[in-house]
Amino acid sequence: LRGTDIDQPRNLAKSVTGSNGSSDLSPLQKHQYLSFKLYCRSNNLTWEKEASKRQFILLKIIRTLKSEGLGYRRIANWLNDSGIRTHTNKKFTNSHVHGILKRFSERDER
Fold first, then answer.
1. CA distances from 42 to 18, 46, 47 (A)
2. pTM of the predicted structure, to 2 decimals
3. Is the Cβ–Cβ distance between 12 and 28 less than 8 Å?
4. DSSP state letter for 1
5. CB atoms within 10 A of CB 76
6. Helix/strand/coil (H, E, C) string of 27-63?
7. CA torsion sign, 90 to 78 to 97 to 106?
8. Tally of CB atoms within 10 A around 92
9. Which one, of 44, 48, 42, 16, lies nearest residue 29 by Cα?
């Protein structure tokens, strides 16, 4: 292919015309299609489950500590030192604390 063939669309019907001037590819010229895939990710598609009493108490503790100026890691250490565990009975990490605050703020926005 030459550079002009790539830059300019080719007229396929002219290149395949028969002796009588008809073309087998003329329908291809008339119909040009654009196809694409669209993906949509959203948190709004989830079913809202009511938060338990334990979750609200934990959120209140975390928000209080956060308003006092503690960071996520210090809040996690405070919860662990107080004997409070996650719902899976594991120690809190800074990621757990951040995730709890993030999820509840998303829930408040809905």
1. 54, 8, 12
2. 0.55
3. yes
4. -
5. 22
6. HHHHCCCCCCCCCCCCHHHCCCCCCCHHHHHHHHHHH
7. positive
8. 22
9. 16
| Distance separating alpha carbons of residues 40 and 76, to the nearest angstrom | 34
- Is residue 110 helix, strand or coil? coil
């250490």: which residue's tokens? 77
Q: C-alpha distances in angstroms, 109 versus 25, 34, 35, 98, 102? A: 55, 37, 35, 17, 11
Sign of CA dihedral 42, 44, 49, 53: positive
Residues, the chain: 110
Q: 47-68: per-residue pLDDT in tens? A: 667 778 998 999 999 999 999 9
Q: What percent of the chain has pLDDT over 70?
A: 62
Let me know: does 25 contact 12? Beta carbons within 8 Å: yes
